[in-house]
C-alpha cells in the first residue's frame, strides 16, 4: 500500500533521514520505533507532504505521493495525527471532530461520528465540552478520532502515548 524507497531528508544542511526504505502492507500495523531525534516525526511529515525529501520515492497504492499536494491526501485515504494532539482550543470536542470530516456529506459525517464515539465513548459524553478541558489522554483520543473521520486506509499517528498516564496509554493502544 505504502512504498518508501531510499528516502533522504535534510533540514537545511542537517541530515534528518538517510536512505529510508519501508513497505507498509494493506490492513497491517507498522510501527517505526527509535530514540528521540532518529527521524520518526520527519518520516511522517514527509509522507504527509509537510516536508520535502531531497531524494527517494514515496508511493501510495501505486500513486507517486511526491506529486500530490498535502491537501489531497485525505481524499486519497491518508490521515495524519501529529505529535502533541493539537486541539482547536476554542472549539468543543464535537466541533474538533467535525473539522476532521468537513469534506464529507452530512450522512457520512453522522456515521463517522458514531464510529468515533463507539471507539471512544468518553468523547460522546464530553462532546459539548471545550477541547482544552480534556485530559491529555482524552485529547489524544479526540485527535485520533478527528483523523478517523475521513475513514482513512492509512493512518499515521505520531507519538500516540506521549504524556499519557499508563491507564490512558493502555486504552489508546487497545483502540489502535
What's the total helix number?
A: 7
Residue ranges: pLDDT <50 for 5 or more in a row? none
Shape: globular
Specify the CATH homologous superfamily of the largest domain.
P-loop containing nucleotide triphosphate hydrolases
Instruction: State mean pLDDT (0 to 100 scale).
Output: 92
How many beta-strand segments? 6
Largest sheet: 4 strands, antiparallel
Quaternary arrangement of the chains shown? single chain
Order of helices and strands: EEHEEHEHHHHEH
Provide the CATH architecture of the largest domain: 3-Layer(aba) Sandwich
Q: Tell me what portion of residues adopts beta-strand conformation.
A: 15-25%
* Content-based structural category: alpha+beta
Kindly report how far apart the N and C termini lie. 19 Å
CATH class of the largest domain: Alpha Beta
Question: Which sequence of strands runs across the widest sheet?
Answer: 2-1-3-4
How many domains make up the coordinates? 2
Structural overview:
By secondary structure, the chain is an alpha+beta fold. The chain folds into two domains: 1-76, Rossmann fold (3-Layer(aba) Sandwich), CATH 3.40.50; 84-176, Rossmann fold, CATH 3.40.50. It has seven helices and six strands, in the order ββαββαβααααβα. The strands form two sheets. A four-stranded antiparallel sheet has the order 2-1-3-4, with helices on one face. Helix 3 (93-100) packs parallel to helix 6. 31% of the residues are buried.
Q: Topology of this protein?
A:
Elements: E1 2-11, E2 14-24, H1 40-47, E3 55-60, E4 63-64, H2 73-76, E5 78-81, H3 93-100, H4 106-119, H5 121-125, H6 136-148, E6 154-157, H7 166-175
Helix pairs in contact: 3-6
Amino acid at each position: 500500500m505504502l512504498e518508501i524507497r531510499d528516502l533522504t531528508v535534510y533540514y537545511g544542511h542537517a541530515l534528518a533521514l538517510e536512505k529510508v526504505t519501508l513497505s507498509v502492507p494493506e490492513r497491517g500495523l507498522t510501527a517505526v520505533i527509535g530514540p528521540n531525534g532518529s527521524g520518526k516525526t520527519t518520516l511522517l511529515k514527509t509522507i504527509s507532504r509537510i516536508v520535502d525529501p531531497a531524494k527517494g520515492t514515496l508511493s501510495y497504492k501505486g500513486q507517486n505521493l511526491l506529486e500530490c499536494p498535502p491537501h489531497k491526501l485525505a481524499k486519497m485515504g491518508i490521515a495524519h495525527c501529529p505529535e502533541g494532539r493539537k486541539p482547536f482550543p476554542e472549539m468543543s470536542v464535537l466541533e474538533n471532530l467535525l473539522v476532521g470530516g468537513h469534506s464529507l456529506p452530512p450522512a457520512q459525517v453522522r456515521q463517522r461520528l458514531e464510529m468515533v464515539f463507539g471507539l471512544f465513548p468518553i468523547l460522546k459524553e464530553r462532546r459539548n465540552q471545550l477541547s482544552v478541558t480534556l485530559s491529555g489522554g482524552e485529547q489524544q483520543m479526540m485527535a485520533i478520532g478527528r483523523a478517523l473521520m475521513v475513514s482513512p486506509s492509512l493512518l499515521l499517528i505520531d507519538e500516540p502515548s506521549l504524556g499519557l498516564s499508563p491507564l490512558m496509554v493502555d486504552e489508546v493502544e487497545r483502540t489502535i
